[in-house]
Amino acid sequence: MKLIFKIARTELRNLFYSPVAWFLFVAFLVQCAYFYCRVVQEFTKWQSLMLENSPDFEGFNRSLTQLVFLNGEGIYSSAINNLYLFLPLLTMGIISREMNNGTIKLLYSSPVKTKNIVFGKYLALLIYNLMLIAVIGIFMITGMLNIQNVDTGMVLSATLGFFLITCAFGAIGIFMSSLSTYQIVSAIATFLVIFILNRIGGLWQQYDLVRDLTWFLAMGNRASKMIVGLITTADVIYYLLITGMFLTFTVLKLKGTREFLPWYRKALRYVLTIAVVLFVGYISSRPGMIGYWDTTRDNLLTIHPNTQKVLNDFEKGEPLEVTLYSNLLDNSYGKTSPAARNDYMWTLWERYLRFKPDIKFRYVYYYDVVDGDSSLFRRYPKKTLKEIAAIEAEGKEADLSRFKTPEEIRKMADLQPEDMRAVMELKYKGRTTWLRTFPDTDFWPHEIQVSAAFKRLQVEEMPKVLYTTGNLERDIFKMGEREYYSHAFSKITRTSLINVGFDADTISPDFRDIPAGISCLILADPKTRMSPLKEERIKKYLDQGGNAFILGEPGKQEMLNPLLSHLGTALDNGSLVYVSKHEVPNVLPTYFTSDLYFMSDAQGMPKLRARLNNPKYKDTVREVMHGAAAVQATSETSYTYRPLLLTREGTFNKAGRLVVDSTAPGFNPAEGDVKKTPFTVMARLTRDLANKQQRIIIAGDADCLSRLRGGVKPINISFFSWLDTNRFPVYTPMPDPADQLFTISGKAAKTQSFFFIWILPALLLLLGIVILVRRKRK
C-alpha cells in the first residue's frame, strides 16, 4: 500500500505541475458556477418580486432541489453530460507519458508490481475526482444555505452517482493511455469508448440474444436513478465492474508487454475478465437481487405505501404472469416492439418488481385489425392483410415470421374489445384481467391503474356501479358528448371507472329489483316520468341503505322530485343564472365546500385539506357547471344534508323558460325569480346505519359527468370513491415539496453569482499560475 500511495503522490505532482489539470479544474468550476447561479439568480429574482407584490405567495409549487441540482440543466446533470470533455484530456498521458519519457522501463525494473503501478496512478485520479466533487460540494453547501428545507438525501445520491461515473471514466482513460504512446490518440480512444458505452444500450435491442447484453453494458442511463435520488445495488455494482474491468485490462496490457506468451493466451485473459464482469453484472441485475435505497425525503421514487400493500396481498410463492400483446399494425408498436422491451421492463415494471420479484413476463406479437376497420385497406388498396403486414414489417424493420396471424391470435385471446391496441393480460391463480395503455404522452398505466388491475386479481368481486335505464337516462354505452361512456366504460381513458377499479353496468328497475351488494346506483337525468314500480324499487333500495348518485337537469325537475321528496330534498324549479359578459348565462361558477375536500384522497384533495386553516386561502376551488338546477333540503329526515358545490354571489334562479342565446336575462321577482347567496348545486346525504354509513349525492347538473363537461376529472372520481366508502381507487397522494422557497433575495443571488463565476475561478487560476511558475523556476 505504501508503494501505491507513493506512486499516487508522484502522479498528483505530475498532474498539478502541468497546466492541463489546472485548466480543467478552473473550467469545471466555471461550468458548475454558471449552471448553479443562472437558475438561482433567475428564480430568486421572481421570488423577490412575488413576495413584494403578492402576499399569498408561498413558493414555486415545485422542488427547488430538483430544479437547481437535478433537472436537465441543473448542476449535476450538466456536469455529468459534459464530463466526457474533461477526463479524457486528464487521463490521456497518465501511462503514455511514461512510455514517451522512457520511465516505464525504470518502473518495470523496480521491485514494484504492475498492479501497484496501475493502482497508484488510478488513486491519483481518484483524488483528482474528489477535488471535482469538492467543487460540486461548494455549490451543494451553498444550495443548502440558499434553499429552504433542501432535500439533502437527493443531493448526496447525485453526488455518489457523479463520483462513480468519474471513477469509471478514469479507468477507461488509463487503459486507453496504455494502448498508445500518442496522447491525442489515447484521448480520442477514450472519447470513443465512452461514446460507445453511452450509446450501446440502444443497439440491437430487437435481437433476443444480445438485448440484455448491450442493455447491461450501456452507461448512458445507469446514473439517471442516482442523479434523482434512487440508489440501487445494480447500478453501483455496474460502475464498480466497469471500473475494475478496465483497470484489469490495463494491468494485463502492461504485463503483456513484458511476457512472451502466445497471443491467444493473452486474449483469453481479456475474455475471462469480460465473462466474469458479465456474469456478475447479470446476476446482480436480476429482479430479487437488486437492493434499493430511496434517498428522497418523501420517498418520491418508490411506489406509494397503498400500492405496496396491494402487492403484499399477493400470496408468497404464487407467481403473477404478465403478457404483453403487441400489434404490428398499431400506432404504438414502437413502444411495445422487441427493441423497446427493456425500456418497457425497467420503466414500467421495475418499481413493482422491487416488491414482487416473482412476476413472470411473456410477449405475444401479432398483426390484426378490428372487424370493420378499413383504414389500412384504404391506405394500401388492393392489398391483403398479410401483404399490408409485410409492408409495415419492412418499414418498422421487424421480422414478420415472429408475428402471429389473425387466425392464430384470435384463438389465443379476444382482443377485439380492446380495439387491438397494446394491452397487458395479467394472470394470477386462475384469474385474468386487462391492464391497458393509453393514447397520451405517458402511454403506460400509472400506479392507480396498475393497483386496480392487481386488486381485480385478488378479490372475488370488484365494486359495481349500476346505471338505471328505461326513462331515457344518460347512457354509458353511447359515446355522445352528453352521454356517460367516457367516464364509465372508455378503455382509453385513464380515469374511467373500469380502469380505476370499478365494474359498470345498467339496470332497469322496471323489470328487476336493485341488488343490495352494489357500490352505488346512478340515476342520471331521466327525461320521462318513472313508473310507480321503478320509483318504488329505487325507494326500497335507498331505505335498505343503498348508496346512490342522483343527477337532474333544469327543466326536468318533476322527473326526480317525487323520488327526492322521499329523501327530504328537491330540485328547485327553474334554472340557475349567472350573468357575465364572457359566457352564456347558464354557465355557473361554483365553489367547493370543505366537505368535498374530505371525500377522498383524489388528486389535489390532501393539499386543499392542508390549506383549510390557512388564512391566506380565503377562497376555494372553482368548478364550472353548465346549466344547473338548485338543490335544497325540504324537510327533516334521518339524513344529514351537507352542500358540496355552491354558487357565487350574483347568481339567481330564473323561473320559466331560459333563453341563453339572446340578451342577458334580467332578474324579475314578479315572474318568480329568486336571488340568494349561495345556491347549492350539489349536496351529499349521509345516514348512520347499524353496520355502515349510507351515502347519497344529489346534483342539479347531469352534464358534470359527461364527456362534454370533462366527466373524467379527478373530482368526479372522488364522488364514486366516496360512495364506495373509499375502497377504490387505490389513491397514491404525494406530499407537496418542502423546498419551494429560496432564503436569499434576487440582489444577493446576483452578488453570489458574480463571486462564483468570476472571483473564485480567477483566484484559483491565479493559484495555478503561481504554482506552475514556481515549479518552472525550480
UniProtKB/TrEMBL annotation:
Domain ABC-type uncharacterised transport system: 495-709
Bilayer-spanning residue ranges: 12-36, 122-147, 153-175, 187-207, 227-247, 267-285, 754-773
Keywords assigned by UniProt, alphabetized: Membrane, Transmembrane, Transmembrane helix
Any one GO CC term of the record: plasma membrane
An example Gene Ontology molecular-function term: ABC-type transporter activity
Name of the featured protein: ABC-2 type transport system permease protein
